[in-house]
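>> received
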Amino acid sequence: MSDSSYLENLLDGVEVEWKPLGEVVDYEQPTKYLVTSKTYNDEFDLPVLTAGKTFILGYTNETTGICEASNRPVIIFDDFTTANKWVDFDFKVKSSAMKMLKSSDESSYSLKYVYYWLNTLPSGLVDGDHKRQWIGNYSNKTIPIPPLHVQKEIVRILDTFTELTTELTTELTTELTNRKKQYDHYRDRLLSFEDGDVEWKTLGETGEFIRGKRFTKADYVDKGVAVIHYGEIYTHYGVFASSAISQVRPEMASSLRYAEPGDVVMAGVGETVEDVGKAVAWLGQGKVAIHDDSYAFRHSMNPKYLSYYMQTAKFISEKEKHVSQGKMKRLLINGVSKVRIPIPHPESPEKSLAEQERIVAILDKFDTLTHSISEGLPREIELRQKQYAYYRDLLLSFPKPEEKGTTNERQ
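>> returned
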């Protein structure tokens, strides 16, 4: 499977026909909810599916009012902006947002082949009704249809490759998870200061909180004032950052509020206790504007030392006492200012900073090994996934109709 010659040998001169997807599969969109979370119980056998990230919402024993159950495999999706999912077990449809595909003719088309081919497509949807998009767009998109035995051989190869890739990725992910737990344990123990010269001071005694000013996504530009949005702190940034991933309109500069180099920026809002109050040390050359749902903590300590401590289980536990509960949790800054942090060698600022720097150097090594996408296991996982996608796409790269001089164009 090193190049297209494999496909040529597999086809053995047989023509590949391109057909509208709507002829190859039957499309169904459920129109009602069947069960609610109140009926879920892990002791039941029948999964309740969603096309979203969760996939299996729960399990139910409800047997009446079934809109659709799979007595044969189906592909489910909510739209083509998310990954298609292969389902070959009995299930219940959760919502009308889920769409399903079945083979229109099992003697001619392998649905699993269609599934693999769909996952080679880039997203082509635009904002709007998904059902209308299917009827008007994807049902007319053409798909290469080799003979059924070729479809099945491609499925066999990709099933095997998928299994091997999944197994390897699972092993690597497990190893990464174990290393992350080991790192968290070591970091928390190193920063517990069970022994040694240390004084515990409140954040309010150590520095001051500066709240940001509001900006919106409509203000984002490719080149302008560097900003940190509160949501980016727990989705894109690690323990520290030296450059911002977002910028807003230059004319907003005077209306914004900034974190200075060395400040620790904290998210003021989040969906979980871990998210709200998540910290990132700002190490950029200049100042960076911060959102009004975030705070810059200004202090005289090592910023990375503070940021590392704010990731510990002890700090998160103390922080939780000062987080408002609800769907969106909010940091109660007056309360958080009373949370204590460890100050090593408090009698000597110079000695204290040296000890903070020593601890940061140790934790930096662990952090790089555990989190960096360019080093260690995360990079290996990414490479395996890219390798799988490359060979899958190569195996499904049939000559397009226009490349063969036909008038039938792939849409």
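>> The first helix runs from residue 5 to 11.
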